[in-house]
Design a protein that fits this description.
The chain is mostly helical. The N and C termini lie far apart (about 65 Å). The chain has helices at about 40-65, 75-80, 80-85, 95-120, 125-150, 155-160, 160-175, 180-190. It has one domain. It is built from eight helices and no strands.
Amino acid sequence: MDAELPPGEIEPAAVVSDVAPPPLLEPAPAPPPVFVPPLLPRLLAGLESGVLGAAVMMAWYALDSVLERQYWWAMLNLWGAGVYHNRVFSMGLGIATIAGASMHFFLHGVGGVLWAVAGARMSNYWLHLAGSFVAAAVWYSVLMHAFWPAVAPVVSRISPRFPTLLAYFLFGAALSRNARRARQLSSIGET
């Protein structure tokens, strides 16, 4: 039972406070726009396309090695000859494999960046696609006739011809995506 209040007393719930309610929070101000240099999305797209192409090439080489009844890491070890020279032939899956994969990703990432800069102004899709395959063929020539003979001649001498040509065709296909990817990356900086 509730006890009745004496006359003149106010119920505690009915007391009006002199304290004003807290003000509504204002939305946070928008962050300042981020400056993205115009060349950066192109370079990043080229790097991404080159590294993706290198990964596809490595998968193809691994499959080809298994079909030829070799170890799947045979080409990776061969590329490791840039660091370990002829010792790669007596090394199994290990540090030479990692060195070869690193060198392969680095070289083809650089190739992707170079193509992104060279082919940046091509707006026609078919022209860009054809240019990507030409860029892959040029990069194949640079690596097989200039880079590898100077760094590790054994790579250019014993690389299998047909699987390598097919691998660079796949690399060219991966390079063809960099124009679209550059547009996507540049739109991120605009938002």
